[in-house]
């Protein structure tokens, strides 16, 4: 009897528990890719795309984006890294690792025949518990004390930068980042911090301009003879959208004191002015690296700033820009929600202990599942140790013991192969990072667990709905 | 003359080369049934709260993770002609009611599977069809008797929540309380006193980041756009809406301006600028403090808007513009003129905020009765948010159905078993061969609670027998208890698991229709597919028999 086809030729379907297992395995592979970038001793990845452009990065979301994953289940992991980047800015590697580890721990239960829906329900409960516990033990720093807040922000920025390429200069950059963010207004728009890259020089030559800087030089006749430095001047910005982000500055800047041609034609307002005329304290043209830059400094209504990055290789400065972006996002989030937790795996160990204790009080399959969740959380400190070359089992044992005795904030000490109170050691991160990571990772894990069949349609022809390929059999792989 | 090669005798002789032709019981009917069975197997595991999701990648390489049968089918691009009938029935259910699409599939598949048994037993197709149709009519007659309660006050959020909960539960088990609450709030807020409810008035806005539990509902609208100018928030906004670009009026025809000397040149640009300023000033003086435009915003105009402290928002979509005008009560103006007070709209609070990474503009009404409400969905992946959007759609559709017909029937398989029992006894009372058809129809109903059970890992047969005995004793509302370990029953009315009457009504009707249509086919003739980018030739299903 001829087989018959239900779906188009070339459709690929697979169903059932084996499908679930294969999805979980795919996610493992993804996490292998980013595993070694976690933490201060994490390594970076060099990726070359199809056009031959090389990118060096430590940031999980960037790596995953460049990986161009096709496997559908693994794509979910890439998505959550992206969403973590969008929501918080940092912690993208952590979220990928967490999700993959959740799935790994559950693999054995799935193979044994436990229904995925039961697992999903238990997971949701566990996540809710973990999130509420995090909120409970997070420490909030009073916003009124500006000094305190500033120190807090600097520590958070330093922790975020710790795992990146520029960790060596993290204090320098942390201070710069906090200065930059503090100079923004209420809404904290990211666009108002411009980052300009100039090749040459060293990292330490990077500077923060509280104002605007851009590359174009004077572009009207006689500019050579114009004085390069003005003070207390009024500016008419002509026909310009002062987009600090874009390099397309078609700025024809004319200083009012020079009547070039017709007064203020078609004025339009830039980012730093509210009236027709803008003001700033200082305007000068300087040579930075091989380029000439115009700097507007000290604008009274300025809610903008620019960071000028110097550095060697192009990849280097790009990675620096990404790292600074992460740090800026972290500081912004910290300003908005001011509660922090200790980093270095401390919060994960604490949650793991809490969930393990909780699981002992409930009967049934839930106990096993919540226990698995707790165990999965330990991946973060474990990976931190592995990346640093420490003996993970040893350190984790010590951590578990310490947490059981009540040391809530104990985590991995990177500098001495030991454990330490990370709160005192000023390794802090905003609690929103961890909460979001947990939520996203658990949602991704639930999503992948809930799929028991994958159906892949063959790619349609370019001209729209494909015509051929009809048959009457169905290839069905059970 | 070349020797003519004789073709195979019979029908095929008359058709072009490459056409395929199948006829008769063995070839056509059984293959159809088998194809439909395969299709319903696929979606069977997605039925109910414990249903699993399917990951479907369509021909554009877009990924869908969902357990909504209609979505899965739409992306599947089913080729088999008979199976396509069932798919169409499912689509019709979606359009008519919005929910219950999987019910149609599972039921129709079961009907066909059991019909195969009858045909093998020796019944003729028309007898089976006859039996099915009679049984269907009887079922629809009995259905009103199964009604266990009705929705009393749909303006009440808590009541609406409990009603929508069941629909959402089958999509997003675990989140259903939270989501049902959101949807109920959204629906109730736009449900007017007169009782009209427009599904389009509940909008959905998806923003990446955070988790599902951070989703909220807003009275008003949310747009993923930024304000064009400097002003980012207005309280008590008077809104004027333009569909034209916020620009100086451009002449339609190409004009030439003759400039005689430098002074005229300077005056020229100045003139345009002054005109622009006058217009913006006029708008401001009419009382507006927020301008919404459907077209581009010129730099010059923006400058003046900022000068006069007008907030400017640009919306690209015409539909968004229309909906916004409905929400705030403004009239869309096609030309850049100063609005009259009647033409302006009002909104309590308009502000720019950042959710996740996205800047959004929020038009918010403090009072409850905005014309439109928006559900802001957060989620960690795009797929998840798409799925939640589908769940919201289902919830809203359920609400709409309830507005039309307030009656409720118990869920969890209770209605199905009740119908099965009554139809079986009806069948036993009939004489003639249709008796068999009617009995099998009743048996098909069992497929639904069985799927529910099997998706939870529970023995289906045990559950069915328990259900039958409970219903026989008269407990009409006993259905499958999801939470319990093993086959256990619970009173559906008490636990609040109820479905709208219309969902079941249309589901049964459409599924039976589809199954009967498939059974009526006994010959399939497929023309050779035309090559190239032309859309595919339609296949012809000839009803040779009628």
UniProtKB/TrEMBL annotation, chain A:
Q: Where in the cell is it found?
A: Cytoplasm
InterPro entries xrefs? Chap_CCT_eta, Chaperone_TCP-1, Chaperonin_TCP-1_CS, Cpn60/GroEL/TCP-1, GroEL-like_apical_dom_sf, GROEL-like_equatorial_sf, TCP-1-like_intermed_sf
Q: Which reaction does it catalyse?
A: ATP + H2O = ADP + phosphate + H(+)
Q: Which Pfam families match?
A: Cpn60_TCP1
From the UniProt entry, list the residue stretches annotated as the region Disordered: 458-478
Record keywords, A-Z: ATP-binding, Chaperone, Cytoplasm, Nucleotide-binding
Instruction: Report a single Gene Ontology molecular function.
Output: ATP binding
Query: Record's Gene3D superfamilies?
Result: GroEL (3.50.7.10), GroEL-like equatorial domain (1.10.560.10), TCP-1-like chaperonin intermediate domain (3.30.260.10)
| Cellular component aspect of the GO annotation | chaperonin-containing T-complex
Q: Which family does it belong to?
A: Belongs to the TCP-1 chaperonin family.
What does this protein do, in the record's words? Answer: Molecular chaperone; assists the folding of proteins upon ATP hydrolysis. Known to play a role, in vitro, in the folding of actin and tubulin.
Describe, as the record does, how this protein assembles with itself and its partners.
Answer: Heterooligomeric complex that forms two stacked rings.
What is the name attached to this protein's record?
T-complex protein 1 subunit eta
Biological source species = Gouania willdenowi (Blunt-snouted clingfish)
Top-down, what is the taxonomic lineage of the species of origin? Eukaryota, Metazoa, Chordata, Craniata, Vertebrata
Automatic annotation (TrEMBL), chain B:
Region annotated Disordered sits at: 527-546
Q: Where does the record locate the signal sequence feature?
A: none
For whether the record's keyword set contains Nucleotide-binding, the answer is yes
GO CC, any one term: cytoplasm
Against InterPro entries, the record matches this protein to: Chap_CCT_theta, Chaperone_TCP-1, Chaperonin_TCP-1_CS, Cpn60/GroEL/TCP-1, GroEL-like_apical_dom_sf, GROEL-like_equatorial_sf, TCP-1-like_intermed_sf
Keyword ATP-binding belongs to the record = yes
Major localization listed first in the record, in broad terms: cytoplasm
**Source organism's superkingdom?**
Eukaryota
Keywords attached to this entry: ATP-binding, Chaperone, Cytoplasm, Nucleotide-binding
Give the family this protein belongs to, as stated in its UniProt record: Belongs to the TCP-1 chaperonin family.
NCBIfam families given for it?
A: chap_CCT_theta
Q: What is this protein called?
A: T-complex protein 1 subunit theta
Q: What's the source species for this entry?
A: Gouania willdenowi (Blunt-snouted clingfish)
Gene name per UniProt: cct8
């Amino acid at each position: 009897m001829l087989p018959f086809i239900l779906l188009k030729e070339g459709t690929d379907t697979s169903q059932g528990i084996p499908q679930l297992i294969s999805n979980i395995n795919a996610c493992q592979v993804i996490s292998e890719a980013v595993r070694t970038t976690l933490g201060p001793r994490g390594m970076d990845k060099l990726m070359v795309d199809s056009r031959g452009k090389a990118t060096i990065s430590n940031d999980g979301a960037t790596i995953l984006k460049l990986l161009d994953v096709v496997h559908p289940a693994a794509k979910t992991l890439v998505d959550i890294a992206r969403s973590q980047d969008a929501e918080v800015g940092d912690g993208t590697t952590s979220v990928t690792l967490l999700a993959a580890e959740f799935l790994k721990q559950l693999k054995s239960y799935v193979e044994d025949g436990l229904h995925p829906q039961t697992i999903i329900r238990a997971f949701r409960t566990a996540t809710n518990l973990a999130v509420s516990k995090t909120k409970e033990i997070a420490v909030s720093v009073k916003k009124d004390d500006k000094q305190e807040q500033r120190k807090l922000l600097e520590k958070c920025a330093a922790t975020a930068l710790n795992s990146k390429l520029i960790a060596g200069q993290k204090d320098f950059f942390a201070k710069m980042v906090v200065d930059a963010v503090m100079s923004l207004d209420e809404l904290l728009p990211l666009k108002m911090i411009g980052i300009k890259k100039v090749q040459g020089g060293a990292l330490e030559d990077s500077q923060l301009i509280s104002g605007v800087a851009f590359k174009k030089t004077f572009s009207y006749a006689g500019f050579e003879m114009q004085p390069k430095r003005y003070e207390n001047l009024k500016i008419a910005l002509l026909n310009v959208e002062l987009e600090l982000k874009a390099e397309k500055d078609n700025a024809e800047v004319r200083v009012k004191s020079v009547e070039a041609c017709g007064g203020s034609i078609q004025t339009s307002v830039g980012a730093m002015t509210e009236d027709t005329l803008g003001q700033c304290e200082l305007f000068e043209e300087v040579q930075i690296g091989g380029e000439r830059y115009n700097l507007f400094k000290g604008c009274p209504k300025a809610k903008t700033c620019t960071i000028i990055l110097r550095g060697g290789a192009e990849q280097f400065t790009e990675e620096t820009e990404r790292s600074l972006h992460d740090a800026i996002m972290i500081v912004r989030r910290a300003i908005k929600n001011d509660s922090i937790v200790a980093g270095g795996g401390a919060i994960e160990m604490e949650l793991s202990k809490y969930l393990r204790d909780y699981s002992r009080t409930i009967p049934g399959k839930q106990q096993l599942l919540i226990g698995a969740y707790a165990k999965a959380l330990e991946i973060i400190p474990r990976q931190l140790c592995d990346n640093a070359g420490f003996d993970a089992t040893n350190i984790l044992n010590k951590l578990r013991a310490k947490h059981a005795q009540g040391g809530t904030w104990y985590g991995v000490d990177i500098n001495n192969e030991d454990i330490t109170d990370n709160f005192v050691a000023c390794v802090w991160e905003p609690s929103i990072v961890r909460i979001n990571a947990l939520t996203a990772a658990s949602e991704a894990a639930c999503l992948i667990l809930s799929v028991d069949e994958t159906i892949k349609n063959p790619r349609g022809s370019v001209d729209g709905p494909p015509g051929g390929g009809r048959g009457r059999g169905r290839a069905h792989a059970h | 003359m070349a020797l003519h090669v004789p073709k195979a005798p019979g029908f095929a002789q008359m058709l072009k080369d490459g056409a395929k032709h199948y006829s008769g019981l063995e070839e056509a009917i059984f293959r159809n049934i088998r194809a439909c069975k395969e299709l319903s197997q696929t979606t069977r595991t997605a039925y109910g709260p414990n249903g699993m999701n399917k990951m479907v990648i369509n021909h554009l390489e877009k990924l869908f993770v969902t357990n909504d049968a209609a979505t899965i089918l739409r992306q599947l691009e089913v080729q088999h002609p008979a199976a396509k009938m069932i798919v169409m029935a499912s689509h019709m259910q979606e359009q008519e009611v919005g929910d219950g699409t999987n019910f149609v599939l599972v039921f129709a598949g079961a009907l066909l599977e059991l019909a195969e048994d009858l045909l093998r037993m020796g019944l003729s197709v028309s007898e089976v069809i006859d039996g099915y149709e009679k049984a269907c009519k009887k079922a629809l007659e009995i259905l009103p008797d199964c009604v266990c309660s009705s929705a009393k006050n749909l303006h009440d959020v808590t009541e609406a929540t409990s009603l929508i909960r069941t629909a959402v539960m089958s999509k997003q088990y675990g989140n259903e309380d939270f989501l049902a609450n959101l949807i109920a709030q959204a629906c109730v807020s736009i449900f007017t006193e007169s009782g009209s409810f427009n599904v389009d008035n509940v909008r959905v806005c998806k923003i990446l980041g955070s988790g599902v539990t951070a989703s909220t509902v807003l009275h008003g609208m949310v747009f993923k756009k930024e304000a064009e100018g400097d002003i980012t928030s207005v309280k008590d906004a008077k809104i004027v809406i333009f569909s034209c670009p916020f620009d100086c009026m451009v002449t339609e025809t190409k004009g030439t301006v003759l400039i005689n000397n430098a002074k005229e040149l300077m005056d020229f640009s100045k003139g345009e600028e002054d005109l622009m300023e006058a217009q913006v000033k006029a708008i401001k003086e009419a009382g507006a403090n927020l301008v919404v435009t459907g077209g581009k915003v010129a730099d010059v105009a923006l400058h003046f808007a900022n000068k006069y402290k007008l907030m400017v928002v640009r919306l690209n979509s015409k539909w968004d513009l229309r909906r916004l005008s409905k929400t705030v009560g403004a009239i869309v103006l096609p030309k850049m003129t100063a609005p009259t007070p009647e033409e302006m709209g009002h909104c309590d609070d308009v502000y720019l905020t950042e959710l996740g990474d996205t800047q959004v503009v929020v038009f918010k009404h403090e009072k409850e009765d905005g014309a439109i409400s928006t559900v802001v969905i957060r989620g960690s992946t795009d797929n998840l948010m798409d799925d939640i959007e589908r769940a919201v759609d289902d919830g809203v559709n359920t609400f709409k159905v309830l507005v039309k017909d307030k009656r409720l029937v118990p869920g969890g398989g209770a209605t199905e078993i009740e119908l099965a029992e009554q139809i079986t006894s009806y069948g036993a009372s009939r004489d003639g061969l249709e008796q068999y058809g009617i009995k099998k129809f009743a048996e098909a109903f069992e497929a639904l609670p069985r799927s529910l059970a099997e998706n939870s890992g529970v023995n289906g047969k045990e559950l069915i027998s328990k259900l039958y005995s409970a219903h026989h004793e008269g407990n009409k509302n006993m259905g499958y208890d999801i939470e319990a370990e093993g086959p256990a029953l619970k009173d559906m009315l008490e636990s609040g698991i109820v479905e709208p009457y219309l969902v079941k009504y249309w589901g049964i009707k459409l599924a039976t229709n589809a199954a009967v249509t498939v059974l009526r086919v006994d010959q399939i003739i497929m023309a050779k597919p035309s090559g190239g980018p032309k859309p595919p030739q339609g296949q012809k299903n000839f009803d040779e028999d009628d």
